[in-house]
Write a structure and sequence with these properties.
single chain, 355 residues, mainly alpha, 2 domains, 76% helix, globular
Length: 355
């Protein structure tokens, strides 16, 4: 059994786990919760084995590199780190509710892979990647990304439970942000159903992304925008139902805020060291300059500043509650653009990481 089969099993497993966790969130049956955990663990173990097999396969091909050097491998590794962090939290705190919010992030990443037809071939490293800094820089960056993803999930949960009135800025933020997240996931699913596998270059990805819906033109685009507005309005109008369902799980705001802070406190120094400092050293070796204001570097700095402000506001300004939860959510939005948006819509020295 090779890595493609194991990755396929893991992918199906994560999507099944997502649906079962959502089912547990809705119906609260203990057996459903246990089933969700079992499926998630099985998928995680399959993915772990797939990563190891892919690494060994590269040595068998005479390439011998860690499976972290292109968009496909980095997305897979991000999902692996995200699920590892989630499972640690679930087993430590005995709470499965997070699964309904974390597994869709994994599903979105895997859906992006299938939508775009990203190359899954094991290829030799380009010269810029042939460095001993590769493993440390990329691994630490994605460990921090996954920590920030968990902070996003806990921050959104906090906002759902803490807001009361529909006119509150925090209420409007979580209803709109949460709705947009699931709208984009649905739009990517529509692209996949209509166009199947679409291509392997950023140009073809940009050409087809959301073409079945928002960029389809004519009635399809109009209906997509109307449906999106209806979804956002419905979530805004009936957000109290979601709050009531979450409240029944006994999660406290203090608990969510504590988890939110801890994962950011872990992710921030890892990102600082691995993402920025190690990246700068590697850049100097590869390109002869520590910092060149490349789009990826610039957006990495923006992400770092957002989380630095998060910690500064919490420690020195005494910010708590909704402000901190919103900051952690905004931070993850910058992470997504740093990771995917820059590769797809901007060009620069990091273009080798596109696909």
């Amino acid at each position: 059994m090779g890595s493609p089969i194991l990755f396929g099993i893991a992918e199906v497993g994560y999507f099944v786990a997502m649906m079962v966790y959502i089912g547990y969130f809705i119906f609260k049956g203990k057996a459903v919760g246990v089933a969700a955990t079992v499926v998630a663990v099985a998928a995680f173990l399959s993915q772990t084995a797939a990563l190891l097999f892919r690494w060994l396969e590269s040595y068998g091909m005479g390439i011998g590199r860690a499976p972290l050097t292109n968009l496909y491998e980095s997305l897979i590794f991000f999902v692996w780190c995200l699920m590892l962090g989630y499972l640690i939290i679930e087993f430590k705190y005995k709470n499965r509710t997070f699964g309904a919010f974390v597994t869709p992030l994994a599903g979105l990443a895997l859906g992006f892979i299938d939508l775009t037809g990203i190359s899954k071939e094991i290829e030799p490293l380009v010269p810029a990647l042939q460095s001993n800094w590769l493993l440390a820089h990329v691994t630490m960056s994605f460990i921090s990304y996954s920590a920030f993803g968990l902070a996003f999930a806990t921050g959104m949960l906090y906002l759902v439970l803490s807001t009361e009135k529909r006119t509150e800025p925090s209420y409007i933020f979580w209803t709109v942000a949460g709705s947009v997240f699931f709208i984009l996931l649905a739009a990517m699913g529509a692209d996949f159903l209509k166009f199947k596998v679409i291509g392997t270059s950023p140009e073809t990805i940009k050409s087809y992304l959301f073409r079945a819906t928002f960029r389809g033109g004519g009635p399809a685009a109009l209906l997509s925008f109307i449906a999106s507005a209806a979804v956002i309005f419905s979530v805004w109008r009936y957000g109290h139902v979601l709050k009531r369902m979450l409240s029944s799980f006994g999660m406290t705001l203090d608990f969510l805020e504590d988890i939110n802070y801890k994962v950011v406190a872990v992710g921030f120094p890892i990102f600082t060291l691995g993402g920025l400092i190690f990246g700068a050293i590697w850049a100097d070796q590869a390109w002869g300059v520590y910092w060149s204001w490349d789009p990826k570097e610039t957006w990495s700095l923006i992400t770092w500043l957002v989380y630095a402000f998060y910690l500064h506001a919490r420690y020195l300004r005494g910010w708590r509650g909704n402000k901190i939860a919103v900051l952690s959510s905004i931070g993850f939005i910058t992470v997504i653009f740093t990771y995917l948006g820059v590769n797809m819509f901007l060009s620069g020295l990091h273009s080798y990481g596109e696909s």
